[in-house]
Amino acid sequence: MTAREWLLSDTPQSRSQARMGRLYGGWLTFTGNRLAMVGLGIVVALMLMALLAPLIATHHPFAQDLANRLQPPSAANWFGTDQYGRDIWSRVVYGSRLTLYIVLLVALTAPVAGLLIGTISGYLGGWTDIVLMRITDVFLAFPKLILALAFVSALGPGIENAVIAIAITSWPPYARIARAETMTIRNSDFISAVRLQGASPTRIILGHVIPLCTSSLIVRVTLDMAGIILTAAGLGFLGLGAQPPLPEWGAMISTGRQYLLDQWWVATLPGIAIFVVSLGFNLLGDGLRDVLDPKN
Amino acid sequence: MTQAMIGIEDLDVTFGYGAATVHAVQNVTFQVKPGESFGLVGESGSGKSTVLRAMSGLNPDWSGNVSLDGQTLGRQRDKAFYKRCQMVFQDPYGSLHPRHTVDRILAEPVAIHGLGDADKRIDRTLREVGLGPQFRFRFPHQLSGGQRQRVAIARALILEPRVLLLDEPTSALDVSVQAEILNLLKRLRAEHGLTYILVSHNLAVVAYMCDRLAVMNRGRVVEELDVESLRRGQAQQDYTRQLLLASQGYDRAVADSFKDFA
Amino acid sequence: MTVSPSATPLLTVENLRVRFPSRTGYTEAVRGVSFTVGREKLGIVGESGSGKSVTGRSLLRLVAPPGEVTADRIEFDGTDLLHASERKMREIRGQRISMVMQDPKFSLNPVMTVGRQIAEAYRVHTKASRSEARRRTLDMLGAVRIRDPERVFDLYPHEVSGGMGQRIMIAMMLIPDPDLLIADEPTSALDVTVQMQVLAIMDELCSSRGMGLIFISHDLNLVASFCDRILIMYAGRVVESCRAGELHAAKHPYTRGLLDSLPRLDDDRAELPVLTRDPAWAAEGGR
After folding, report:
1. Fewest C-beta in 10 Å: which of A84, A279, B127, B229?
2. In this predicted model, which residue has the larger pLDDT, C226 or C140?
3. Across chain C, what does the average pLDDT equal?
4. Mutual orientation of helices A88-124 and A249-256 as an angle, nearest 10°?
5. Does any domain span residue A66?
6. Beta partners for C11?
7. CA end-to-end span of chain B, whole Å?
8. With a cut of 50, which residues of chain A have pLDDT below it?
9. What protein family is recorded (chain A) (predicted)?
10. Is the pLDDT of residue B2 over 80?
């Protein structure tokens, strides 16, 4: 029996084989989508870049060389240099760490909070639902960037505060999605069945409702990554995110815009980096939707 | 007379408020003896499933008297109730969690009731419903409709209940599979001395499975009769006779004679 | 009266095959089905996965890609349906061959009143005026025994019951006066008494208009009592065909097994015989 046959077997012999088989089936669907594979490639490349930054970068990201300021791309400086003569390629490479840091922190906090609030609200209904959803509405009523700006100015500029602000502003849509899904799941027979076994609401929400909501949430989070990166870049651009000399891509564009007409590369190349990474997450999200969305 | 296993007295169920109130079940009364199989027959909207859901504790908005084995039941049920009374649903595609393996589905009730010895119980119950151990780690989508319904029956049985509430357990299945499931349910009842309430729109299924039945229409019990009378066509009420005629296949003249019963 | 199928077949199907690509090659849903339909009621009976619904849909070329339909011949009243242009097919669908599905809720447009939907269906094929279409619609609603057509005309699909929804679907499918109606489990979602009434309407329309009917169902007894002829399908093939009245004398072990496994009111068996499937039934060419 080959590994493939073992994985695709309709008669798994153990818990782990059943689980692996399902993962493999999902992987086959995912790899069937070529654009999703491009997205995955970009995201993996971003991770490798962040991990191996010291090996990939040609210069130190903070090393100034005032004699060589605002040089166009060349063999020595692949992406040219900025107004302090720092190597833009190296700054973009190190900047990937900041991007990943922001993205991961937001992805680990906002959806989890949204998932819990949404499923509790949707499953319990009644007053719990009314109170939690009105709070959600308050957050939804403001444009995301404006609300984030307000939080950052209250908390003070800096990358950690930017992450907190983004997380606080991005959980409400997840709560809404999780609640809507929970309301359809709540009335299904398999939930009735587990209720009739005497399961507590906590057990039902954690063991039966949340696993069904996570997949669509993962898709949504992946598709939102681009927005998170752009919000972080926007905060950086306004000087409220990462502080100099950190090579955050948004901040790099912000300083580069003064030279946009004569030295285009200073602002454009970090911009392209943001664009490529956003696109990568979007394509990945599309592919994940094919695999995870229970409707298909 | 021996004490009833299930007693339902003056059961009323309403949905909605004010002008939109729907009186789904009105004044329903019947008793089921221990080890007996009782059928609830009616068309859609007759309230037969609503009675079952009130009995099971899924729908707490009812009034009247419901008792199990002599104990009067409240609207909130405790674990001890669920251990004695389990339910099998109509749609085998909707009643199993799509992301859980058979193993997980069967382990859940054992864990909730802290029964222990899950492995042995799961193996034994799977064998009892005619599924071998090779089915234990499959997901619902890897099973046929009949196999899923067997898993649903196993899930109800694993707590070793005294009463099974069956809500149209075979109406979503092919006829050849229906025969297998009906035989299985009949055998399990004999082996474990179970008490059944079977809800169905199919008179022939009820006749095969039950000892007595109640015919419901628009929330009320029209008539209660034993299966022998049903087989001989000795129904007292016009409504029951119309149901009997309709279940005997298409006949132009018969179809034209049908009327609505309010 | 029934016209014998050999005299003037309305529809002739020869060696119909439908297959769908899967992860491991192809899944064959229909494997070499041949039959003819005249101006009669033909029942196609089978269990889930027998290919009966796919057969019905493939006649109107409604099998969505990547499904592939092949046949030696599908001929409807002199027209080759297999090679007809998409435009020609649109003319035939609805106007000459109609189809009724199991659940009216999924087949009716939820934001349009039922009366307007039926009138539209009529106008698409006849270019009649609005008032003419309305008059015809009210007549048709009366013909499917809706008591108060004027009121029902202005209802939205969610405001009608299942039985009435199915009558409305039938009215919509019959208003262009088709020659052939394909009905896929048209009454399975309905209560038995309503089911009988809907069947009576279809029966009446068949005999008064001389329409052909392909009635697809899983219910052996219903088809035996309602149709003129029956095809029994198993694993994508027709394993037996007989006159409806002779179903209880069926010879094929599969048909016999299905009949036996039904619980009946008039006998008192302790156990129902269970169908043991013989791989030979599914084998091509084997009977």
Report:
1. B127
2. C226
3. 86
4. 130
5. no
6. C37, C76
7. 35
8. 295-296
9. Belongs to the binding-protein-dependent transport system permease family. OppBC subfamily.
10. no
Rounded Cα distance between A86 and A79, Å, is: 10
| Subunit contact C226:B255, Cβ cutoff 8 A | no
Chain C residues with CB under 8 Å of a chain B CB are 47-48, 162, 191-197, 199-200, 203, 218, 220-222, 224-226, 257-258, 261-266, 268-269, 271-275
Nearest CA-CA distance, residue A39 and chain B, Å: 26
Q: What is the pLDDT of residue B1?
A: 53
Would you call B79 and A211 a contact, using CB atoms and an 8 Å cutoff? Answer: no
| Sign of the dihedral defined by the CA atoms of residues A251, A252, A255, A256, in that order | negative
Query: Taking Cα atoms as reference points, which of A190, A163, C275 lies closest to residue B88?
Result: A190
Nearest CA in chain A to B142: A10
Q: B175 and C264: CB-CB below 8 Å? A: no
Cβ separation C274–B254 shorter than 8 A: no
User: Is A126:A117 a contact under the CB 8 Å cutoff?
Assistant: no
Domain count, chain A: 1
What digits encode the pLDDT tens for the residues B67-116? Answer: 999 899 988 888 999 999 999 999 998 999 988 999 999 999 999 999 88
pLDDT-derived band at C94 (thresholds 50, 70, 90) equals confident
Residue C211 has pLDDT above 50, yes or no: yes
Q: What is the domain-level CATH number for residue A237? A: 1.10.3720.10
Contacts (Cβ under 8 Å, ≥6 apart) of B135: A11, B102, B126, B143, B147, B151
Nearest to C177 by CA among C134, C135, C211, C227: C211
CA dist., res. C1 & res. A271, Å (int): 79
ipTM of the complex: 0.89
The answer to whether residue B250 neighbours chain C at the CB level (below 8 Å) is yes
User: Residue C76: inside a domain, yes or no?
Assistant: yes
Say which DSSP state A87 is in: B
Q: Which residues of A touch B (CB under 8 A)?
A: 10-15, 17-18, 22, 188-190, 192-199, 203, 207-208, 211-212, 294
Question: Is the entire prediction scored with pTM above 0.90?
Answer: no
Separation CA B28–CA B66 (nearest Å): 11
- Position A13 in a domain: no
In which domain, by residue range, is C258 found?
Answer: 1-86+212-286
Chain A interface mutation, best of B99, B159, B166, highest count of A Cβ atoms under 10 Å: B99
| The amino acid at A265 | W
Domain count, chain C: 1
Given this model, what pLDDT does residue B123 score? 93
Cis peptide before A245 (omega within 30 of 0): yes
Task: Please identify which residue in the block is written with the tokens 């609401």.
Answer: A201
Domain region containing A31: 24-61+79-292
Is 3.40.50.300 the CATH number for B6-257? yes
Burial of C120 (0-12, 13-18, 19+ CB in 10 A): middle
Q: Contact B79/A198, CB-based, under 8 Å?
A: yes
Inter-chain CB proximity B108 and A194 less than 8 Å: yes
> Cβ separation of B97 and A190 shorter than 8 Å?
yes
Six-digit token string for A216: 């669509």
